[in-house]
Design a protein that fits this description.
The chain is an alpha+beta fold and about 150 residues long. Helix content is about 30%, strand content about 40%. The protein has a domain of about 100 residues: Aminopeptidase (3-Layer(aba) Sandwich). It contains four helices and seven strands, in the order βααβββαβαββ.
């Protein structure tokens, strides 16, 4: 498949949730429930976005931004669309929104075993700043990562 580098990225709506839940369930051992996404769509400090191609939702990111720190709470791309630049495009978009909200840094947590995601984050200017022991299902560590948004990238 050709590399997709410019997907349409728009604000997530309630109408997107059926498609998002399919991606979520295919992506995570402990997937978010519909209520989690509903809270993101309606939250005052939540900025959820979807990536579309051909009119179809293929990925999403849930960003929370308050004062000087923003956090990516969730990001995923459908299995059949991975490796095509959608996750990177969503990450770049989230960084831009966080900067526009005057955040100094963007943080996230990632499973220690998620090597592809860790590579994406490192390649996007994030650095490891800590570890949460046994964070996932009380058995797998989370790596805490952060990006300085004041640096130009």
């Amino acid at each position: 498949m050709p590399l997709q580098t410019n997907p349409d990225i728009r604000t997530m709506t309630i109408a997107d949730l059926d498609d998002i839940l399919v991606i979520e369930q295919a992506s995570f051992m402990t997937p978010w429930k519909r209520e989690h996404f509903e809270a993101e769509v309606s939250g005052d400090y939540s900025f959820p976005f979807v990536a579309e191609t051909g009119g179809r939702v293929v990925g999403y990111v849930c960003l929370q931004s308050l004062f000087e720190e923003a956090q990516i709470l969730n990001i995923a791309v459908s299995p059949e669309h991975r490796g095509q630049g959608f996750a990177r495009a969503l990450l770049v978009h989230a960084c831009g929104v966080a900067r526009d909200r005057n955040a100094d840094r963007l943080a996230l947590e990632v499973r220690k075993s998620s090597h592809e995601a860790i590579g994406l984050y490192l390649g996007s200017g994030f650095r490891q700043v800590g570890i949460r022991r046994n964070y996932y299902e009380a058995s797998e560590d989370a790596i805490l990562m952060e990006k300085n948004l004041k640096e130009t990238t």
